Automatic annotation (TrEMBL):
MF (Gene Ontology): asparagine synthase (glutamine-hydrolyzing) activity; ATP binding
CDD domains recorded: Asn_synthase_B_C (cd01991), AsnB (cd00712)
Gene that this sequence comes from: asnB
Keywords on record: Amino-acid biosynthesis, Asparagine biosynthesis, ATP-binding, Glutamine amidotransferase, Nucleotide-binding, Plasmid
Protein name according to UniProt: asparagine synthase (glutamine-hydrolyzing)
Amino acid sequence: MCGFAGFAGPGGERDLAVMTSIIRHRGPDDDGVHIDTGGALPVHLGFRRLAIIDIEGGHQPMATAEGDLVIVYNGEIYNAPELRRALEQAGHRFVTDHSDTEVLLHGYREWGLDMLERLNGMFAFCLHDRRRGRLVFGRDRFGKKPLFYAETADGLVFASEATAVLSHPSVPDGLDRNALVKYFAYGFIPAPLTAHAAVRKLPGGCSMVYDLTSRRLSVSRYWEYRMVVDDQPPGGPDQWAEELRELLDRAVERRMLSDVPVGFFLSGGIDSAAIVALAAKHRDPASMKTFTIGFDEPSFDESGYAADAARHYGTDHACRTLNLDTAAGMLPELLGRLDDPIADPSILPTHLLSRFARERVTVALTGDGGDELFAGYDTFDALRTARLYHHAVPRPLHRLAEAVAHRLPRSDRNMSFDFKLRRALRGLGHRPAHWMPAWLGPASVEEVSRLFGADLTADELYDEADALWRSGASRHDVDRSIEFYGRFYLGENLLIKADRASMFCSLETRSPFLDRDLVAFVSRLPAGVKLQPNGIRGGTRKWILKKAMAPLLPPAILSRPKKGFGIPLSRWLRHLPQPPMETAARIGVDGAWLAARWDEHRSGQADHRGLLWAWTALATALDRPAKTPAPMENAA
């Protein structure tokens, strides 16, 4: 796990040094540069390394023996040993002992960009193909590892974080209003947009090629998360459960490969417990370090369940508690470093958990992806009722229901009835393609319109989700909702949160549920075994995963209702400081209207937790001086 930065075009070593210094937290162990001024455009590549695999031989930038290919790369390729064997059989000769970086170099030479379809891992890379005069970029399927870039009049600038791109003198520092509107609608900014008008991010599952002579940039998609409804695996639920368990076991084993200490995030829920249970098959549980975060608010606290799970498997377990004072102390620095903001408040406990784990390990396995692949959220339960409601309830009656729900007493408890009802009704005011973003987003269509002083529609705000909903092969609400979660909520929100929260303290996190082979298998399973129908109330979520893990997990974990990794946000927002309203003018939103929402929330008249947290995260991230132009060095 590392970070890289670079540019093609004007600039010099000092510019590169500034860019790599900004991402030093991603790689405190080593650094390196590659500078080539002999082509159509000068190329500068910089690298920061967090040494995980082949500590002695994995220095970057790494070049082939002939020097015609040079790469900087962030991530881990879990099937690198198999790919290396195939490449050796094809005649390639390796210099390093077991570096996955060198596998990418030889893989590109052998297969070109078709290599991307063979990779099982998390990655972002830039490869300088000197012979063909181009830069080649790739990003993993779900987009776990970040890659930002900016096209300029004279070249291309790129890095693992947007702030590093913006530090280059050729990149202007202005905001993208459309991206900010999307941010309040979704809670994240969908790729390729970022908060910064000049900066874009390469979507997950895509490659990019920049021709150094023509200065033309092309982006291609090599993979997209879709349900394969016409290619159901042979057999039935018993065989599927067994194969699922074997695939997850293999994914866990692959992700335990490391030359540095490995630990595990453990919440006591089925996803993280499944990872620990399978890992315990491959190593002594007493040597396994597990970590969890607790809360002083009981309805949010899962630390007791995590402790029970740790005792069941016999791991070396540790826990810390996050309270309001701790959160308030972390908030300015943590949110201030989110150069591509997300409105997910669980970044606070995720970062504290990462800092805590980093004291003892360098790598941690997580349960990320389990809920998205197997329909694990409350919103999936709501689908069947939503479809009936959509057909049966006229608009006037729906507006009456919203008015009644608005008058219900408000609770600060985790996923309280009044919160779920108001959020459900918000989504049900829209057509099915918009249910998921409306349920998950921090602000309603009306709130986003009022905030930006524009008459916006759901079709405008959720057009990405709408296009995905309409283009899928499956007509099943569960399948289409799973695609939304995988493509947007997971790829654009949760994985960004995990990357930033962990890499700010130089911890690598790995997600076995996102294994290429596992995802391919699960995408072929029918919706009914992920959310098993159970009358009008929805069904049994994660049914096939629970069946697969039943031989290894205690019944208490299998039957536990999902709690979620939330924080007591509604209560905390009544005490956390309000961001300075001067930022509202810079962003172009109605500061007076926002201030009124703060007053309503703090007095208990309304619950604006989603809107106010989204504003807090954005304003804190953007509350920094505009970039002061610096003299640009000439590479020539």
